[in-house]
Fold this sequence. Notes:
This protein is mainly α. It has two domains: 3-88, Rna Polymerase Sigma Factor, Chain: A (Orthogonal Bundle), CATH 1.10.1740.10; 95-178, Winged helix-like DNA-binding domain superfamily/Winged helix DNA-binding domain (Arc Repressor Mutant, subunit A, Orthogonal Bundle). 72% of the residues lie in helices and 0% in strands. The longest helix has 21 residues, at 16-36. The protein is globular. It starts with a helix and ends in a 6-residue tail after the last helix. It comes from Ruminococcus flavefaciens. One of its GO terms (molecular function) is DNA binding. This is RNA polymerase sigma-70 factor, ECF subfamily. Keywords: DNA-binding, Sigma factor, Transcription, Transcription regulation.
Amino acid sequence: MEDALIIEMLQQRNESAINELRQKYERLCVYIAGNVLSQHEDVEECVNSACYEIWNSIPPAEPHDLKSYLCRIVRNIAINRLEYNSAAKRDSRYTVSLDEISDCVPATPDESITLSDLADSISRFLRTQDEIQRKVFVRRYTYGDSVAEIAKRFSLNEKTVATYLFRTRKKLKVFLKKEGYDYE
Length: 184
């Protein structure tokens, strides 16, 4: 089923929209949450919470890209669950990728700029990057893949992946400063 039809069903409060959403994207959601969380029960709960949040947010939200919207919700719920589960124990491989990106993306943007604006700016930036660098960046910071997994997926050396990530983060920081996210 097309995403636009699922969004329309959600806006009409048709409960079968959640079933269609699950059928189309559950494996992706489990993959994203599983890269952040180690417990299967936490992953399932995260996916269920994401479906609930989608149900409650559409309407009024009208996402242009349902897949990206859902992925962002799943990732955020999983990160919140990880923080809750580990409190002071920051030992997950996903927290490493969050630490990496925190140097170039403001944790709390200026009150005049919404998180949606920040996400749009990052998307615009990524569209200016080479395809492989964009894909490496998204696999690391959206899907939570390790450097080794990314290297294997794209038949690259791990050092090459790390270099791509470093350079892309550096360029992103410069881009965001030009966009008005000078938070240092």
